[in-house]
Amino acid sequence: MGTGRTLLSLVKERRLKYIGHAERNTKTDLMKTIFEGKTEAKRGRGRPSLSYVDQVSKATGLKLQSISQKSQDRVIWREIAKSSCAAANINPDDAAR
């Protein structure tokens, strides 16, 4: 039906935009915590879930160091977020409606 692709594309775009926002924020070490993926919880049964960094790397095709560098420039990072959305053949403006 296309609804699932639209929703997934919207989630992907928002995840990428948030990474850029949090990476540029110098007041907290939030990105360090997210990139390291350290939480104080027991590991559940079954297959381990993908880390946040793995999801962003898969969506953009970039490595961690490149993600950190490119997300510092807001214009470039927004283009990366939109292009990954375009790769799924979804217009992010239509997905938001």
UniProtKB/TrEMBL annotation:
Keywords: Endonuclease, Hydrolase, Nuclease
GO terms, molecular function: endonuclease activity
Domain of life: Eukaryota
Listed name of the protein: Endonuclease-reverse transcriptase
Organism annotation: Elysia marginata
Origin organism lineage: Eukaryota, Metazoa, Spiralia, Lophotrochozoa, Mollusca
